[in-house]
Amino acid sequence: MKVSRRTQVYWIVGAILIIAYAIIPVLWIVSLSFKEGDDITNKSFLPTTWSWENYRTVFASDLFTTALRNSVGMALIATTISVILATLAAYAISRLDFPGKRLVLGVALAITVFPVIAIATPLFNLWRTIGLYDTWLGLIIPYLSYSLPLAVYVLAAFFREIPWEMEQAAQVDGATSWQAFRRVIVPLATPGVFTAAILTFFAVWNDFVFGITLTSSEAARPVPAALAFFQGASQFSQPTAPIAAAAVVVTIPVVILVLLFQRKIVAGLTNGAVKG
Amino acid sequence: MAAIEMRNIVKEYGDGFKAVNDISLDIADGEFMILVGPSGCGKSTLLRMIVGLEDITSGDMVIGGDRVNEKAPRDRNLSMVFQNYALYPHLTVFENIAFPLRLNKKVSEDEIRRRVKEAADMLELNEHLERKPANLSGGQRQRVAMGRAIVRQVNAFLFDEPLSNLDAKLRGQMRTEISRMQRRLGTTTVYVTHDQTEAMTLGDRVAVLRRGFLQQVASPRELYEQPVNMFVAGFIGSPPMNFLPAVVAGQRLQLPFLEVDLPAKAAGKVTDGQLLIAGMRPDHFEDARLLDPAKRERGALFRAKVDVTEWLGDSQYAYIPFEANEEVTRQLAELAAELDSEALRTQLIISIDAMSRLRENQEAEFWADTSRMHLFDPRTGENLTRDEDAAADLAHLEEEELRERTTR
Description:
The structure holds two protein chains of two kinds. Chain A has helices at 5-33, 53-60, 62-95, 101-113, 116-130, 136-161, 164-172, 177-188, 190-205, 209-213, 223-228, 240-265. By secondary structure, chain A is mainly alpha-helical. In chain B, strands 6-7-8-3-9-10 form a six-stranded mixed beta sheet, sandwiched between helices. Chain B has a five-stranded antiparallel beta sheet with strand order 13-12-11-14-21. Chain B has a four-stranded antiparallel beta sheet with strand order 2-1-4-5, with helices on one face. In chain B, helix 2 packs parallel to helix 4 (138-150) and helix 3 (109-123) crosses helix 4 (138-150). Chain B is elongated and about 75 Å long. Chain A binds chain B through residues 163, 165-166, 168-176, 179, 183-184, 187-188, 190, 269-275, and chain B through 51-53, 72-74, 77-80, 82, 84-90, 99-100, 103-104, 132-136, 138, 141, 148, 152, 165. Chain A: The chain crosses the membrane at residues 9-30, 72-91, 103-124, 136-159, 180-205, 243-261.
């Protein structure tokens, strides 16, 4: 089908608008992070002189570096646990017939749409009583309860795509259920596992509500929450530029993750398994 | 290697539907058994019950003398080729074939390499060992699936319509290949198909199933020549057997186009004026002008108008439409529906010499070998003229042939 010139032009204009809408705020933050001192009031998009000053400030501050450590640590732990549990749960949901299967999926969906802020206050009180307040574990638990249903949902969809015969073939070949799962199903579900892992990691990495309500010190405060307490070099000026620099720093791991695993996420690994 | 015995096997689903109904079947050690029937007849379910992927509702499944009803698939020591091959896409061809061996910790790496090599040699897969299944053609994938099946020493091979995804030419080649492989390894084999050519050419014996019931188990030759009922007669053979209305008139039988003596076998089983269905295979007819004079004695001559002819080079078919009464038409339509085909009109399909220059829409003289005609009861479908002695002879021949092959 030949697309008319007119439609082509509309498509291009539309695409440019959407890209601009998404990327201008990001570029703006990047540009801000390179502005030195009072340069943020220079009334132009680009800095007058490019400077690394804000980045030096950010990394010199204990507040930021410990928060970064907290964020990375908690995100990795929560992601790992969540993906392992979700893989097992999703496999059971897609393969086994057990009473309450639909209920499990329904509850999982309900949790993902449940407003986070609604449980923040009760959790705050509960955690203070049982001593989980302001600890890594205190944050990882609510992270898990929100990321697990999401991961289960993503993985269940992937498992359903894997032909039943794969597993039956493995069983006939002499594999136990566990061997069939580990040697055949998991490798085939790798794209799904990575997708689930990245989604979980993003969700945890970007969390602000739990981070700000369930912490009081640097012991467990993650980056998004820490930025709110950021003071910059001088107490008397708004630390806009250093916050921008910190924002850029926390965005970089996410971008790297996506670039690294982009190829892994590509579905279609099951190509050639069965004659379609 | 082992014999497989099935005793009163039943598969009943939750809704009470019986996919497999009271099937008893003995498969001898080293035998090539075919399970055949139209779709939905329970043949695949039965195969999956042998391998253990489907639970057995009742009855006994005995493999090599052990009852295996409660055993997991991996404890039954069988190997299976799936219809869609079910290769492991993340593994190379070598690793796919080696997979069953790797699960057994006792097999050494050298042994694995030797056995995979052996299987790959037999199936001519050597140059593809490092490739992934996605990069293989349909026929190559099929061979990998077979390699995975033969790499172990198993009690039996199970095939679930392995050739149905290949194109016609490749199917013919692979059919011969499977037959050769089975003869060479001498392993008991159960093969499910809905293709009657595969059933006839591959099997030592063929089990014909219909709606979960076993109709007849016999050598291909016996199924073709001495079917027990109308279903088996109609299912085996291509083009299918012709079914004609036949009315008993004293000691004579009136068919469309011709009248013959009532066969001796049927005498006493029928009453005067009764409507029967006569079954005659296309190759029991001939163009009278090209007939071998020695054959003329055995049959009868008749004149009929040919509607369409199909010339295929080595053979030729002629179609002769005829009028049948309502009851017969309905019967034939029902049978056709069950055989996954459609009876558009009542017609006689006859195979004539390829040399015949018969023209369409012209009347000609034909010969029918009425001595090989079968008569069926239209209500029960039962074959009234089955020759038990001839059937026993054929069964005996088949048994002898199998014994000769397996003891060699």
